[in-house]
Amino acid sequence: MASQSRSALMAALRPTAATLPTSGISTVFAHGLGKPGLIPLWAGEGDMPTPAFISEAASKALLGGETFYTYQRGLPRLREALAAYHARHYKRAFSPDNFFVTGGGMQAIQLAFQMTVGTGDEVLVPTPSWPNFRGAVETTGAKTVSVPMRLERDGWVLDLDRLFAAVTPRTRAIVINSPANPSGWTASQRDLAAILDFTRKHGLWIIADEIYGQFYFGGGRAQSMLAPSLQHLIEADDRVLFAQTFSKNWAMTGWRIGWLQAPVALASTIENHVQYNTSGVAAFMQRGAIAALDEGDAFLRTQVVRARQGMDIVTKALAPLNSVRYVAPAGAFYAFFGIDGMTDSLTAALRLIDEANVGLAPGTAFGEGAEPYFRVCFLRSPEQLNEAMQRLSRWIVTQHS
Ligand SMILES: Cc1ncc(COP(=O)(O)O)c(C=O)c1O
Question: In this structure, which topology does domain 15-50+298-396 adopt according to CATH?
Answer without folding.
Answer: Aspartate Aminotransferase, domain 1 (3.90.1150)
